[in-house]
Write a structure and sequence with these properties.
115 residues; mainly alpha; Cytochrome C3; two-stranded antiparallel ribbon; 2 strands; globular; binds heme C
């Protein structure tokens, strides 16, 4: 009886493991700066967290580049271009990833002129 309960708990813990180990976070929508984005003719950013988890380690980004809390980073394009956040060395300011001037690769709703 006791052994059985232990096996069940162990199995449940195992099942939960991948979700914890992988972060299990899907797409994150960035639209805090929507007014400024509208002015510049671009829409919100859909950040594929899951995809970034596959090509980087958690601590490549957290906590050095991004605090791991929704909305706590105050990202702007100026800071991106200054080599912070998405534009950090080895990221979208390096040959490892598409460059920052490809607005439409991050922003939705980019007008033809800005693509
Ligand atoms: C390429 C960089 C990058 C990598 C790699 C990365 N994250 Fe994140 N993570 C982010 C960004 C950006 C956010 C959003 C922060 C914000 O909202 O300002 C975030 C958010 C989070 C959050 C907050 C979610 C919420 O709803 O508050 C957690 C927790 C987190 N990440 C954990 C992880 C774990 C665990 C891994 C590794 C499996 C990981 N991250 C890998 C960039 C990354
Ligand atoms: C690598 C991804 C990425 C690329 C490429 C990118 N952006 Fe952004 N951009 C972001 C993120 C992330 C934010 C922060 C959004 C938020 O927190 O609301 C942002 C915010 C903005 C904002 C609002 C904040 C501010 O700084 O005024 C504007 C405007 C903007 N981007 C314009 C552009 C334009 C124009 C381009 C192309 C020249 C571009 N972005 C390319 C990721 C990107």
């Amino acid at each position: 009886m006791r052994a059985k309960a232990r096996i069940i708990i162990f199995t449940m813990a195992l099942a939960a493991l991948p979700a914890i180990a992988s972060g299990g976070i899907g797409d994150i929508k960035f639209d805090d700066k929507i007014a400024s984005m509208k002015k510049a003719g671009v829409g919100p950013v859909i950040f594929p967290h899951g995809k970034h988890e596959k090509t980087n380690k958690c601590n490549d980004c957290h906590p050095k580049i991004f605090k791991d809390k929704r909305g706590e980073n105050n990202i702007s394009m100026k800071l991106n271009m200054d080599g912070k956040f998405c534009g950090s060395p080895n990221c979208h300011n390096s040959p490892k990833a598409f460059p920052l001037f490809q607005c439409a690769s991050c922003h939705t709703g980019v007008s033809a002129a800005k693509k």
